[in-house]
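Proteins fold reproducibly. Next comes a concrete instance:

***
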Amino acid sequence: MSVQDIAKLGKMLAQFLANFACCFARPGGRTLLAVYVRGLLSGVQRKNAEAIALDQNVAPRTLQRFLESIVWDEHKLRHRCQQLVATEHARPEAIGCIDETGTAKSGRQTAGVQRQYNGNRGKIENCVNSVTLAYSVPGFDCLLDAQLYLPQEWASDPERRKKTTSPTTSPSKRSPKSRWI
């Protein structure tokens, strides 16, 4: 989308993003959400925080802070998205799509990484796996939820999990035997 296309969306985009205002503890988070979404919709070649911030005339560190430490309720945001999809896109021909997605990783620091089957590449390698739920009707597709698969090696090692949990992430309420986070 061009800057002009995004500008034409102006009021509609603001109204849409207002649906998620309840997910942010402070007004600054809501403002930066709008900046980030406009950047994702823009024609910026690389969709990283720095490029988006510069394109949207915001200091890169400000947008990076939004992504890493601004307090927002991701569960409420996901629930709100699901409500909107159910309200505005309910169709008898709708289907739910459940899919496993593997992402190759090097190292051992990313939560859930280990040598395991990566379906995207069709082989066993160092990777993380997640399971996603999408909703699909003709002309509309939406990711509704995703869960990181946590291998037993990670599930049974609370110290290792703690090292990958940021201070703003709430601890999982599931038992250590849980295989999903």
